[in-house]
């Protein structure tokens, strides 16, 4: 007879280990992503100015997608 020890992990133990590892990794990754809120740097005039410009690539997009215009 052989007297070998096999390390077996049951299905439920495996799933518990993977679940705990996933939670730990998620917490580790989420921590550096949390940044303090920053104040808005635009003044009222900059907020109200027109930003949309119908450039050549915008016109091509409208033409290709058959927008009326």
Write a short abstract of this structure.
The chain has 69 residues and is mainly α. The chain has helices at residues 11-30, 44-48, 56-64.
* Helix-strand topology string: HHH
- With helices defined by DSSP (H or I, 4 residues minimum), what is the helix count? 3
The coarse overall form would be: elongated
Mean pLDDT across residues: 77
| Beta fraction | under 5%
Low-confidence stretches: none
Total number of strands:
0
Helix-and-strand structural type = mainly alpha
Cα gyration radius (Å): 29 Å
**Roughly how much helix do the residues carry, as a percent range?**
40-55%
Distance between the termini: 86 Å
The biggest beta sheet reads: none
List the main descriptive attributes of the protein structure presented here.
single chain, 69 residues, mainly alpha, 49% helix, elongated, TAT_signal, TAT_signal_bac_arc, Formate_DH_TAT-contain
What does this molecule look like?
InterPro entries: Formate_DH_TAT-contain, TAT_signal, TAT_signal_bac_arc. The protein is an all-alpha fold and 69 residues long. It has a domain at 43-69. 49% of the residues lie in helices and 0% in strands. The protein is built from three helices and no strands. It is elongated and about 80 Å long. The mean pLDDT is 77.
